[in-house]
């Protein structure tokens, strides 16, 4: 079994009857979603909120009842993947383009569990390009601002066109190589008009489930206890 599958399936052990569950996006989160589907088939009773159209489609195919984010007061547990996470539980998400909905769902979740393979647990984040979701109305100006600051921006593309997120925005990937001041970087990005959100997730994760060889390592963010 792959490290992604080990991590994804392990996290499902934290889900109990009656919960509202956030379903993440990406190949690792999909393993969790499939396992939840299996448990529903065996009698588990939950409702779920999806973080992307792709995840909603997978969940529906597995008979997982999907509800709108606005129909729930809170989400009990969200299981999501990540592209990189460091020892302070700061991470980069959005490799799969779902960062905006993922951030919204995480923000109203009482417990956020991230599932990753061992290669994503790093000392310093930033090797993975940082996604910034921007409005198509003003994207070129934001791109130029990044370029002028030497942040090596790249418009994300799909089939030669600009990649469109589920909410109809573009993504600019910043090839920074290392991000030391993540809080400052997050505040700066948040303040740029036309930036919808970015892939820096700070102080979000409660529990990190890392697929490690043939087993899993579970790490609890002590600051969230
Ligand atoms: O943030 C994400 C999607 O926006 C994903 O969780 C992240 O890209 C990890 O994906 P994978 O599990 O396929 O490696």
Automatic annotation (TrEMBL):
Task: Identify which residues the record assigns to the active site.
Answer: 102
Give its E.C. classification number: 5.3.1.6
Q: Which reaction does it catalyse?
A: aldehydo-D-ribose 5-phosphate = D-ribulose 5-phosphate
Which GO terms of the molecular function aspect are on file?
Answer: ribose-5-phosphate isomerase activity
**One of the GO BP terms on file:** pentose-phosphate shunt, non-oxidative branch
Fetch the Gene3D superfamilies from UniProt.
Answer: 3.30.70.260, 3.40.50.1360
Name the enzyme's class. Answer: isomerase
Q: Which UniProt keywords apply?
A: Isomerase
Name of this chain's protein: Ribose-5-phosphate isomerase A
Q: Which gene encodes it?
A: rpiA
């Amino acid at each position: 079994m792959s490290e992604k599958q080990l991590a994804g399936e392990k996290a499902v052990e934290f889900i109990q009857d009656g919960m509202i569950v956030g379903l993440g996006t990406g190949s690792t989160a999909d393993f969790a979603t499939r396992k939840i589907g299996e448990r529903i088939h065996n009698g588990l009773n939950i409702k779920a909120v999806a973080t992307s159209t792709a995840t909603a489609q997978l969940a529906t195919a597995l008979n997982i009842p999907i509800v709108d984010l606005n129909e729930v007061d809170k989400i009990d547990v969200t299981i999501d993947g990540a592209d990189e996470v460091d020892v302070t539980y700061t991470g980069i998400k959005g490799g799969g383009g779902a960062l905006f909905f993922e951030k919204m769902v995480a923000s109203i979740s009482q417990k956020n569990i991230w599932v990753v393979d061992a290669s994503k647990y790093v000392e310093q984040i930033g090797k993975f390009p940082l996604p910034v979701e921007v409005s198509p109305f003003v994207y070129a100006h934001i791109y130029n601002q990044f370029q002028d600051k030497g942040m090596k921006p790249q418009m994300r593309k799909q089939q030669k066109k600009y990649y469109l997120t589920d909410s109809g925005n573009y993504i600019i990937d910043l090839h920074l190589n290392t991000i030391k001041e993540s809080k400052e970087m997050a505040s700066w990005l948040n303040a740029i008009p036309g930036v919808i959100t970015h892939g820096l997730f700070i102080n979000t994760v409660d529990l990190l489930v890392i697929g490690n060889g043939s087993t899993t390592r579970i790490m609890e963010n002590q600051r969230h206890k």
